[in-house]
Specification:
The chain is mainly α. The chain has 14 helices and no strands. Helices cover about 85% and strands about 0% of the residues. The protein is globular.
């Protein structure tokens, strides 16, 4: 029974963190009109969310190592719930930005601790298969979320999507209190000195830096695309809200399908080929998107090329992410914290750049994605050779 309960709880705990961006993005044009603000400020609701995530992720792992996974999960998800409820209530853009920041502080908890709990109980291919399965299930929620967000936006305005996320946070928090087990067997005292020494140890490891930064750069490419996708599809390509949601859902659904079979693919072709194929397809998709945006930009070709990127991303991410967690098994909490905090700051930077430079032109979107994927490819070269 526990084998079923634990992954289910992990997924429930991660749902709100995973869909909060995709479900809210369709409402950005309405949000801009409601507050009479700019497109950049709407996109900054994502950037500031990841900034809060970054700050929190730095210490969540060591706190979970010191005080246990269960209490930190419950406290962190309570903060996430408060931030989500604040988004529903927000009467002004500054208030919404503050609520999104608080939401980010809480969202880091599940994103860090869930994977530390997986590392507590699973190793090697088993961990990769579990992460791939979770990616698939969670990505199915993400695939549905833009469609749901578009209908919620039409029915209830921009607050509708935030209300759904808040509802999920309340349910998740209650279930964690009732059923979440403790997976940590040996607790380590929390000391700031140890926090810095662990971080120094991790940052001095070249292989850890490679395996933690490369997936984060691909993730940043995807999120930076998502943050401007509603404006790109609906304003530049002149699609309806529902057609835009279908295009975005297709990209994410392809990622979900590949993630479902990532463990099987890894088993048959090995981690080295998974990494090589993943980064190759990601680079091909980004370059094709850039070429298409220059020659004959269209919604169909944009979705097609970004879908190729998603296939590579789905092959690359679970393989390399799992490897990064196994490099220092004695400090899994600190490792997961550092990985997630780096990912958050990279994503926050990428979305800020996208918000600053986006002008309705798909070429700028493609260029920023390509640059991010290019850096990921460079970082991955040495790891791939090993």
């Amino acid at each position: 029974m526990s084998k079923f309960i634990h992954p289910s709880l992990y997924i429930i705990a991660l749902i709100a963190c995973c869909i909060e961006v995709d479900i809210s993005v369709p409402s950005f044009p309405n949000l801009v009109a409601y507050f009479n603000t700019t497109e950049s400020l709407a996109q900054y609701t994502v950037s500031i969310n990841f900034l809060g995530f970054f700050i929190s992720a730095l210490i969540i792992g060591p706190l979970a190592d010191a005080y246990g996974r269960r209490p930190i999960m419950i406290i962190g998800n309570a903060i996430l719930m408060i931030g989500a409820l604040g988004c529903v209530w927000a009467p002004t853009i500054p208030t919404l930005l503050l609520a999104r920041f608080i939401q980010g502080l809480g969202a880091a908890t599940s994103a860090v601790v869930v994977f530390a709990m997986i590392a507590d109980t699973c190793k090697g291919n088993k961990a990769t298969q579990l992460i791939g399965l979770m990616n698939c299930v969670l990505t199915c929620f993400i695939a549905v979320s833009p469609i749901a967000g578009s209908y919620l936006n039409e029915a209830f305005g921009w607050r509708g999507s935030y209300a759904v996320v808040a509802f999920i946070c309340v349910i998740s928090w209650g279930l964690l209190i009732l059923a979440l087990p403790e997976t940590l067997t040996i607790k380590k005292p929390f000391h700031l000195k140890k926090l810095f020494s662990d971080a120094k140890k991790l940052l001095k490891s070249k292989i850890f830096l490679q395996t933690s930064i490369a997936p984060s750069l691909l993730y940043a490419s995807y999120i930076s695309f998502i943050t401007c996708a509603s404006f790109l599809y609906m304003q530049t390509f002149k699609l309806s809200l529902h057609l835009y949601a279908l295009h975005q859902a297709l990209v994410v659904a392809i990622f979900a399908l590949v993630s479902l079979f990532s463990g099987t693919i890894l088993k048959h072709i090995g981690s080295s080929k998974c990494v090589g194929l993943g980064i190759g397809l990601s680079t091909l998709g980004a370059l094709a998107f850039l070429l298409v945006s220059i020659i004959c930009s269209s919604a169909f070709l944009t979705t097609l090329t970004v879908s190729i990127f998603s296939i590579g991303f789905a092959l690359f991410y679970p393989t390399v992410f799992t490897a990064s967690l196994e490099i220092f098994p004695d400090i899994k909490g600190s490792a997961t914290s550092l990985i997630m905090s780096k990912r958050a700051v990279i994503v926050a930077l990428a979305t800020w750049v996208m918000g600053y430079f986006y002008n309705g032109n798909s070429t700028r979107v493609a260029l920023i994605m390509t640059i991010s994927v290019g850096f990921s490819s460079l970082v991955s070269v040495s790891y791939y050779r090993k």
